[in-house]
Design a protein that fits this description.
mainly beta, globular, single chain, four-stranded antiparallel beta sheet
């Protein structure tokens, strides 16, 4: 069992930066693929980024490439999402997700554990 808690969301102006954190419970965090998804008002949840258990492989959605970076610290049981050059269209609730066996990292159905989400609002 893994429990995920996101933090770091807030209100920021366009062009600004935020760093989201997702703290995980459990001693097997380092065995899990971790992902970030987001859901904007009136839209479906979409994939943002994912990272392998070791941190050696990362995958970003095209919409955030060059602006967002996913990383993890297995010693702290935490995964991060550094978001730079934020745009109003990045406004959404951001969710952290985890699974030991995820293979198609951009699919929500691959992840068995989810956090409650943290709100990110980017003003123009």
């Amino acid at each position: 069992q893994v429990q995920l808690t996101e933090s770091g969301g807030g209100l920021v102006q366009a062009g600004g930066s935020l760093r989201l954190s997702c703290a995980a419970s459990g001693r097997t965090f380092s065995s899990y693929v971790m992902g970030w998804f987001r859901q904007a008002p009136g839209k479906e949840r979409e994939f943002v980024a994912a990272i392998s258990w070791s941190g050696g492989t990362r995958y970003n959605a095209d919409s955030v490439k060059g602006r967002f970076t996913i990383s993890r610290d297995n010693a702290k049981n935490t995964v991060y999402l550094q978001m730079n050059s934020l745009k109003p269209e990045d406004t959404a609730v951001y969710y952290c997700a985890a699974d030991r066996w995820a293979s198609s990292w951009s699919l929500q159905s691959e992840y068995g554990y989810w956090g409650q989400g943290t709100q990110v609002t980017v003003s123009s």
